[in-house]
Amino acid sequence: MKVRINQLLANKPVGETVTINGWVRTRRDTGAFSFVEVNDGSCLANLQIIADAALANYEHEIRLLATGSSIQVTGLLRESPGKGQDVELQASSLALLGPADPESYPLQKKRHSLEFLRELTHLRPRTNALGAVARVRSRLSFAVHRFFQERGFVQIHTPIITTSDCEGAGEMFQVITGRETSVGDHFFGRPAGLTVSGQLQAEAFALALGNVYTFGPTFRAENSNTSRHLAEFWMIEPEMAFCDLAGNRQLAEEMLRYLVNEALTSCSDDLLLFDQFIEKGLLKRLQGVVAQEFVQISYSEAVERLQKSGRQFTYPVSWGLDLQSEHERYLCEEVFACPLTVTDYPASLKPFYMRLNDDGKTVAAMDLLVPGIGEIVGGSQREERYDLLAGRMSAAGIDLDDYSWYLDLRRYGSAPHSGFGLGFERLVQFVTGMGNIREVIAFPRAPGYAPC
Ligand code: 4AD
Ligand code: MG
Questions:
Q1: How many CB atoms lie within 10 A of CB 212?
Q2: Ligand 1 binding pocket includes 131 (Cβ within 6 Å)
């Protein structure tokens, strides 16, 4: 019977004959037999194989097995007399499927730095840390869908190619065919790009179906080479009709807790590894997030706190200037020491679609900040009043004809509505403690960096 190692270690069917496949992590020989540690990616733990000298291919294959080789082993599962494992597999056959030349295979027994592994995006999932990240990421992705489906949200597949620049920040990658011969010769009849956010299209569906979400890749051609930015990242964007900023914030907080709790309960072995080797105290921090009340303050209060802090910041703090990462981190790491939602930013700092507050100066925006990362969620109540929206769009230099479909949503059956975007990689960073966002996506893309 072919089994995965995680099932084997969970069920421990001692006395049964099983077949496993995997990659050799280490081999150690004694006089009469070899210990081979095998990992198949189903879990962090390896399975110990005992291969004794009586096996036909012992001398010319097994005794030469190198790290990274793939093998198939059939044998009897038995209790292990040795330390470090409850069970081991006594091989009745061990076949070498794919050798790995120890002279050139770059992943050897020693620990490699995450920076070194970044140059090997195609091989790094075979390491403990990057394999664990992949499993946690997959589990969180599944839980995102479960969270929304349990609450009656409808998933919308919003487009990847779009002619609308949601954030209006000019960070869209352009989509061209390479066959354009003159200006104005566009495949789609007008300039198009890769989406920076599915929000605008999600709004159209929220104003038909009530509660919707989209979870897909988004692209930003911004020149930021930081540990928290990617040119291609995944975003989770719920959008809710008949919902104000308070309801929006409640959903964001509930979702963050739900996802952190999911990781704690279904990825405990992998998180233990991160707690040991990546961020000491990770588990305690995550348990705190699940148990804690989050704090909420307005942008104006945040500015006041920063000004009164007596701290020397690199970037200036004054009402009307954007909060920089150092400010966000100071507030949620040192002042409040917990996740923190900052609301009601100056209208001038935020995109055209955010709802203008009654003070005429601020908008119903929210950024959820978390220790270690800073902004993990950005969202708002949307401007549902036609005249105000059209006014802000014109002021932002947007051609109203290009966005007439979006304005239609305010012309016909407009309703208060709200939504947010959670950066999926920032969430995976938060949960794994990884300091650099390039570790939490399989094949990172950043300025000057797209190795395969
Ligand atoms: O704050 P942002 O730009 O908001 C939007 O795009 C809204 N349209 C979302 C909405 O309301 N539906 O991005 C949302 C989140 C950020 O808080 C951050 O977590 C993540 O997306 N993010 C990035 N993650 C990785 N690399 C980048 N370059 C990112 N830019 C934003
Ligand atoms: Mg933002």
A1: 26
A2: no
Which architecture, in CATH terms, is 5-98? Beta Barrel (2.40)
Q: What is the DSSP letter of 187?
A: T
The hierarchical CATH code for the domain 124-439 is 3.30.930.10
Check if the beta carbon of residue 25 is closer than 8 Å to that of residue 67. yes
**Using one digit for the tens of pLDDT, what is the confidence trace for 272-331?**
999 999 999 999 999 999 999 999 999 999 999 999 999 999 999 999 999 999 999 999
Q: Is 378 in the pocket of ligand 1 (CB under 6 A)?
A: yes
Encoding tokens for residue 11? 């069920």
pTM of the model: 0.97
How much distance in Å is there from the Cα of 264 to the middle of ligand 2? 27
CB 216 within 8 A of CB 151: no
Matching residue, tokens 């879990």? 43
The phi and psi torsions of 6 (rounded to 5 degrees) equal -60, -40
Residue by residue, DSSP assigns 338-365 as: S-EEEE--BGGGS-TTBPBPTTSSBBSE
Kindly identify the ligand whose nearest atom is closest to the C-alpha of 216: 1
Residue 347 tokens, joined: 């209208």
CA pair distance 295, 339, nearest whole angstrom? 7
The distance between the two most distant Cα atoms of the chain, rounded to a whole number of Å, is: 85
H helix intervals, 210-313: 245-266, 268-277, 282-291, 299-308
Q: How far is the CA of 199 from the centre of ligand 2 (A)?
A: 13
Confidence grade of residue 169 (pLDDT, cut at 50, 70, 90): confident
What is the residue extent of each domain of the chain? 5-98, 124-439
Taking phi over 0 as left and psi of -120 to 50 as alpha, with beta for the rest, 190 belongs to beta
